[in-house]
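User: I'm putting together a teaching handout on how multi-component assemblies are represented. Below are the sequence lines for each component of a complex, exactly as they appear in our records. Could you produce the 3D structure of the whole assembly as structure tokens, so the students can see both representations side by side? Please keep the chain order the same as the input.
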Amino acid sequence: EKGRDNAQFFTSDMTNIATQKFGFEKEIKESLALEQFFLVYQPKVLKEKHRIIGLEALIRWQHPTKGMISPAEFIPIAEESNLIIHIDEWVLNQTFIQLQAWQDEGRTLVPIAVNISGRHLVSDGLVTYIAKKMDFYGIEGRWLELEITEGVFLHDIERCIEVMAQLKALGIKISIDDFGTGYSSLSYLKRLPLDTLKIDQSFVGECAEHTEDTKICETIIHLAQSLKLRIVAEGVETAPQADMLMSLGCYIFQGYHFYKPMLAKDTALLLTKDHVV
Ligand code: C2E
Ligand code: CA
Ligand code: CA
Ligand code: CA
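Assistant: Of course. Below is the structure of the complete assembly, with chains in the same order as your input.
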């Protein structure tokens, strides 16, 4: 309708986006080496504030000129290529370094959960990489947990079962992240060697107000109970949300109402016998 000029503009715009994305990928790769990335840790809390039963490692990118870039911005781009494997490995290595440091300081350890992309889970290198790092840093598998979203089960369930069995053999725990937003069928859930389901924060937000979301939380909790899986609610921001979830049978929480993600040095202060079960 608008003639040739417009088509021209569209084309150059598309090229522009592609170049930008390529530039972004290159920049992420370089930044990993330049130590512009760091991890923060968000506690998982059992029932009341003071009993921390685990941590989740979350990546942060402090860009020299653009400031803090959210993982919600760069992880989806990284997931389109093998770049996500570089990032996952960087996060795993960093997590092992942290566990070793806390272990050496004589702190009471809790498992640290790392987010792993589906692409990486079904790739060849994950189990070998983790086994090598456990050995190198002298860390037992029970201190590592992997959080995986449901999407990957759809693509290659047999491969997922195989890899997860190898991870379990190393003592590593496995959670399904953002549960309820993906496509898990009940038969998949039964076959996967899982430990935990994490209720997605989109259902937690309005769960205290007797909405459809309350029923979804209840259904997910019952499902976890019948499959003998642990259940964790993420994104818990208020006391009424925690109370509602407890009345539905969920006792492990993660969210701003308890703790925000924090730096390693602040997290370390929580790893004492009083705080940990
Ligand atoms: P996720 O794994 O579902 O992580 C939970 C996100 O919710 C985190 O955002 C966390 O900071 C945020 N959050 C925690 N408590 C609350 C709360 O009470 N209210 C609200 N509104 N949000 C809360 P973050 O750190 O920005 O990470 C976003 C997503 O990026 C993560 O979602 C995860 O999918 C991905 N991600 C983060 N770090 C990594 C990583 O190291 N590797 C990979 N592969 N993905 C990561
Ligand atoms: Ca997660
Ligand atoms: Ca999540
Ligand atoms: Ca998420």
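A couple of points students might notice: The first strand starts at residue 37 and ends at 46. The CA atoms of residues 220 and 226 lie 10 Å apart.
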